[in-house]
Amino acid sequence: MRDKHLDLRHLSGRCPICGLYPILGLFKRERGEVFSRDVIELRCLCGYSYTLDQYVCPVCGNSDKKLFNLYIIGEVTYRVCTRCKHTLGVIREFRDIDLDLLTLIVAYGLILLSKSLSGT
Ligand SMILES: [Zn+2]
Ligand SMILES: [Zn+2]
């Protein structure tokens, strides 16, 4: 089976189906033939999914781990790219929660986070 890795440089990070930026990512360990790597499976609101290396910003392509700020709310790690300010909610442990619900949880968390980051 071929990896459905996309070259996001041509899409500037937007979902090729609906044109939105991804906000939800599921942390996964992908087994390769020789070694396994940690990837983030991005889940778009429209249901489209694709994988990225663990520390790559889906919007600007930033892959420098030091340029991400991490904020943890509950089970969700919000990863803020300091270069383009895009925030991705990453869930490590995937429990039996409906994906649509997870998207809502992350969307709500993003609102909380942006409120607290704006320093009120
Ligand atoms: Zn989409
Ligand atoms: Zn970025």
Note poorly predicted spans.
none
Measure the end-to-end span. Answer: 49 Å
Strand and helix order? EEEEEEH
Main sheet attributes: strand count, strand direction, barrel closure:
6 strands, mixed
Widest sheet: strand order? 3-2-1-6-5-4
Report the C-alpha radius of gyration, rounded: 14 Å
Shape, principal axes of CA atoms? globular
Q: Ligands bound here?
A: zinc ion
Helical fraction: 10-25%
Number of helices: 1
Question: Can you walk through the features of this model?
Answer:
This protein has 120 residues and is α+β, with helices and mostly antiparallel strands. The chain has one domain (14-117). The protein is 16% helix and 32% strand. It contains one helix and six strands; from the N terminus they run ββββββα. A six-stranded mixed sheet has the order 3-2-1-6-5-4, with helices on one face. The longest helix has 19 residues, at 99-117. The radius of gyration is 14 Å and the shape is globular. The relative contact order is 0.17. The chain binds zinc ion (ZN) (2 copies). One zinc ion (ZN) is lined by residues 57, 59-60, 62, 81, 83-84, 86.
In short:
By secondary structure, the protein is an alpha+beta fold.
Describe the SSE topology.
Blueprint: E1 24-31, E2 36-43, E3 49-53, E4 68-73, E5 76-81, E6 87-91, H1 99-117
Parallel strand pairs: 1-6
Antiparallel strand pairs: 1-2, 2-3, 4-5, 5-6
The chain binds zinc ion (2 copies).
Defining key terms:
1 helix, alpha+beta
